[in-house]
Amino acid sequence: MNKIIVLFLIQSLAIFHVSAQVQTYAPLSGTFTSFDTIIKDFLIKKKFTDDVVATFAIAKAGKILYKQAYSTDLLLNIKPHPDLAMRIASCSKPFTAAAIRLLSSQNKISLDDTFYRYLTTGNNAISLVLPGKSLKDPRVMQVKISDLLNHTSGWDTTILGFDPMARMVLIAQENHTLNRPLPQQIIAWMLSNYPLQQAPPAPYAYSNFGYCILGRVIEKASGNSYINYLKMELMQNKMNSLEVAQSNKQFPHEVQWYLNENNPLSHFTLACNDQIFGYWVDSMDSHGGLLSSAPDLCIFLANYWMSGQKRNLGDKGYSGYFLGSLPSTWAIMYQHESGIDFAFLMNTRSTDSPALDELYKQLAAAVGTLPASVTA
Question: What is the pTM of this model?
């Protein structure tokens, strides 16, 4: 009897079945069956369980060609749909890069400016050292905004041994508070206590910390908050789902998040972030803290290249991708040389880290099999 009731409820929600294990929640399309198959097989192969939700959207010139939502559970706390907003982790960085380039094109900043001089002088100057302390490494004053943008600033976590953006709990403890440290406080803690690992401009070294600093450059140059500048100026209010994710609350259109495929996070509490994550996602805004839907990410991809350069609607001839990965998040953004773009989001990640790269490659290969009527 219980099984019959469950099936009745599922049918009443107009859920379309892909298999006994993975459900889809929007009308299917024969043209894009290969993408559904890849994602379905991925979810089954990785054995994701309970309330795991993924969304996918594919577009050309900003027009959504197909969008879908998938889950591995029939009874979720919210009905999945393709426009569901999810955390996008490091896929936030192309937004930051685009904002920096836009401000530069408007002559509000120069990429050749040093970030330290820019942020600590003039109107709305901020302090970037802790009270009673000074810069640990004077070479910081030589780091240009372009160095932060290109990951050549001289901060290198492989040499340092840790990521400053994952030291938020320690910073809060040193401040004798339970409150999350603001990005400016994280920057001051780092600059007061640790030197650069290499002199700028340095060899490429991926840096979350560098993009945290860029968020503060955006705020000072625009006179607005980071997220409001992205929403109103960068995207001209075209992305309704775009937000900075919150550590201690859940947006109405968010689903349950999972630390990995077997560990649910029951609530967005401070304790959860302290004990499990070691960071507050809202303090990661400009390097890994944004929230968006997959279709909205395709709008961004239609207007900006992955590097942050402006893209004219319909431009093609370039392929690039960006991956995002944090506890509770896997994300993919992709631009194909044909002009096709896609985005994939998921509310968990597997302990099998290479799996996300494998999924990206399979989905990217599937773009190449689309009929000419779609890609032309």
Answer: 0.90
